[in-house]
Design brief:
Largest sheet of chain A: 6 strands, mixed
Largest interface: A-B, 101 and 101 residues
Structural class of chain A: alpha/beta
Helix content of chain A: 25-40%
Oligomer: homodimer
Number of helices of chain A: 19
Strand order of the largest sheet of chain A: 5-4-3-2-1-14
Strand content of chain A: 15-25%
Chain lengths: ~600, ~600
Amino acid sequence: MPYKAAKCQLIYKGFGLKIIIHQTHHKIADFKSIFKYLEENFKKPEKGIHIFPELFLTGYPLLDLCLQKPFVAKYQAFLEKLIHWSHSLPKDVYLLMGGLEYNLTQSGIPMTIKNVVFGVSNSFQGESLYAKKLLPNYDIFDEKKYFTKGREPQVIEVFDKKIGLLICEDMWASSFHDIDPVDDLQKFCQSREIQLDAVVNLSASPFIINKHKSRLERAVEISCLFQCPFIYVNRVGGEDEILFDGRSFAVDGERKLFEGKKFRGDILELDFPEKSQQYSTKPNSKSLTWEELFQARLNEEVQPAILRKWNNHECQEVLEALAFGFQEYASKNGFQKFTIALSGGMDSAMVLTIIKLSLKKGQSVEAIYMPSIHSSSLSYDLCFDLCQRLGVKLTTMPIKFLHSAAKNLFGQSFNDPFKGLSDENIQSRLRGVLLYGRTNQVNSMAVNTSNKSELAVGYSTQYGDSVGAISLLGDLYKSEVYALAHYINEFYQEPIPPKLIHRPPTAELRADQKDEDSLPPYAILDAILEGILSYRYSKEDLLQKGFDQEDIDKVFTLYARSEYKRYQFCPIIKISSKSFGFGYRIPLSSDKTFYNQSDQ
Amino acid sequence: MPYKAAKCQLIYKGFGLKIIIHQTHHKIADFKSIFKYLEENFKKPEKGIHIFPELFLTGYPLLDLCLQKPFVAKYQAFLEKLIHWSHSLPKDVYLLMGGLEYNLTQSGIPMTIKNVVFGVSNSFQGESLYAKKLLPNYDIFDEKKYFTKGREPQVIEVFDKKIGLLICEDMWASSFHDIDPVDDLQKFCQSREIQLDAVVNLSASPFIINKHKSRLERAVEISCLFQCPFIYVNRVGGEDEILFDGRSFAVDGERKLFEGKKFRGDILELDFPEKSQQYSTKPNSKSLTWEELFQARLNEEVQPAILRKWNNHECQEVLEALAFGFQEYASKNGFQKFTIALSGGMDSAMVLTIIKLSLKKGQSVEAIYMPSIHSSSLSYDLCFDLCQRLGVKLTTMPIKFLHSAAKNLFGQSFNDPFKGLSDENIQSRLRGVLLYGRTNQVNSMAVNTSNKSELAVGYSTQYGDSVGAISLLGDLYKSEVYALAHYINEFYQEPIPPKLIHRPPTAELRADQKDEDSLPPYAILDAILEGILSYRYSKEDLLQKGFDQEDIDKVFTLYARSEYKRYQFCPIIKISSKSFGFGYRIPLSSDKTFYNQSDQ
């Protein structure tokens, strides 16, 4: 039975048919800017099919915002405006836009919400074409909390071209789920004898290191399945922890037709891609949702070394991601000034370097160094050297006097001046006070300097060195911070003093302290942590991998008892499949003995 | 067609058939204690049917724990042990237990997880009887993230009695969902001509003020629908924010047969309830999930005054809930000592009072008062009076010297001593440092003293007065804290100085400061906030309710710009349907202008 999608049929009177990819970059719920974008870009629109990302009309992720009455009301009003606006569009322009479709109660409260594609032309009435079928609900994703899934595949016919529609996760097949939107679409086309001219996927796909490679591989697979080009449109933005990297693309079989910019808005225009007629025959692989790409890491057979060293390409990708995430958080929350507390160690030096390298016009960063009686002169020298190289103003605020004043106060009040851990923590917390005093004074933003290894074992002081508005390094193990430092020094004119990189890590909270006195060497610590977090290894698994029993026990103990520190931590820019933060949810008050081996 | 459930049929040889309710109280994942409980209570078990709560075998909520390999392995080993143990049970004992049923990959990773009822007898082989059908996924609930829903209703036949099974949310009908387990069970019984002898619901149902009344109402409805007793078993526990209050019960029609203790483990034994033969005919109401009870508040027609004053019964319930939640967090995280920072104001006085009233053997609480140059002598007098009344040791640690030392340091380092907000915040943060210095010194737990009104408008200093391991008052508006204070003073021998209650609220961070200089009066503020949070009102809605435009604008502005403070806040003991914390998820970096009225 031949298929005809009457609703969307338009007759194109131009010459070659164009595809225009709008790789957009808007703040969540910023309806004004979104509308302004449309007004500005459609004064004299390019004739053809304009494709926008998933939830272009609202931004993503919205979380509870999509349930709020003021948000819903504003969005509904915006949709009305969009409908009105669309009626002035020329006849030879067709827009595919991601948005929300609400079913509201009489009092304006959502009954159901669908994540949909709107087909916008000059006869647009506000009805959607297609609703997302595969709602991701793992790790950072909670789409089943908010959205109702779509049930039907969709092929639209625009300007004589037959286009299959998908939204983001829909492209990832699954053996875990009972839903496979690609498979459904294929069966739909087969049963109706439809030969597609393109498959289009509107996405809001979070950045993870090396994820883009998997997107391209899967795209080739889908292109070959349908024997037509596959067009992928992704949004751009940093939403607290989550980054959207853009890089919209099209492939036709193995051939990549174009790729959009990384971490930047972009508009791409191309002729409607001709079919290559050369498609390899590939089966629809069934283990490629992100959930399963994550699960697959747990499969003993496919498992490589636990923690692989980043190559230059990966270092560059991470550097761009962190700079972008930082800039997004800063601009969306209204900060132009930044204050970094330097310690003379690697992490704070790295944060300052990334910020300095990413500064935009009108922005400034300053550094403060807050030595205590345990701080070495080397630390000051390295901070000084770093700031010289970066051209950043450094202010020294010794905490010696405050520290001893606090100590005296305890002596007077409790007849018990603190020592040991209390004494270490108070130094770190006094630094937190001074850092935040400074941010209040000049209305700057404090950026956190903790790394993932510290966060995992609780090797930081709550309300002390763990403070900050956002964490740049919270998803990088210490050894990854070092890898990034070497890369930056090689390719960015050595902003970091080599001595600083080669110095053994120390918190300098007591005399002659070194991290490795309390922790296993970072190479081992980080591998064990990656085993626990990403591979969900048990102690037995790690023992089998050749790690030392004592190291394993120590790391598990430290990890299990520091949940409370992670609970109150700031948002962490996510670059890996498993980061601490929103997608990591462990109860604080549970019994922790189950981490011990089975006989214990 | 008459129905016979062969699998579970046992022949009871005793006299009257007993039902034994195990209202249990265990730490999450504490398999040792759970097994010990079984061993101790089944040495010479009461003959009859023993009923345990939902997920008795693991605890609830598990969040990501249920995905962790070490947890899964330990649980599977525990299940094996349970199977072995069950074979020594006498023939006339049958247990209904909540637990998890895993479908694992070869490498021990969960493919699917079901929240089930196990029927445990001496022939138990580890297979479940019933899987939960309605998986709550709103607010604090994320069950669709972890669990696969069950599809079939279940009636079992034990000792000649036919029992219909439900798990927690299953009992709440819904017009939003396409699933109604009660309706399904009824149709199942009708089609097979089954007349049930009881409906049993295994629950892990979080406490919310006044929720228990709704449970009982719905129970009567279900009992009447099936014309048989309804037995409800609930767990006990405080899991970070979420409290489980127990209060297991049975009803037969309108008649309540028994009710278990509140916030305490309990074992209840009764003869298998005879049918009353007097059931009113009630329809299966279709708007009673908790999701909808929450939604219903948004229905203009049923809406009462926004914020109703608590009666004595409600005050007592809240007081018990807070004391229980505090004790649970403390004991599960290994604290026996507590340190409270007193300000001379209502919130810290309330926190100290609740803790002191709830102290157990071996526990102790101390208070510290940290006056600055802006603190009045009245504040000290009130702290002194409070501690005298409560019998708590009070230590004064003036921050004047530290404060001026910090000020001098800024003067020296930046040639700019701070003033205004910077000066206010630094006092609050220095107090945080001293409070945490003290907790480190004596290994005590700092309890947060913020209330819900402050949290909502960001009227607190991050890392200052907002610190703490857990928040007792974070789900109480300021006016509710006052209501509780009046109640406590009336019924608990006036532990709080009346002068303290009648003093106008002040942060004392600058001269002559009063809260009402920066905020609307609390009665108005709290009503507007409840409108925003629980009713999801827009500005227009609140204007229609008669609030002042200026107050509304101010509250929305303060609310929208303080998300970052709430993000890093400690767990909040939840007592209302909408609290800040795990079930409240708003992006930090979104545009906030949509809160403004439509013409703006």
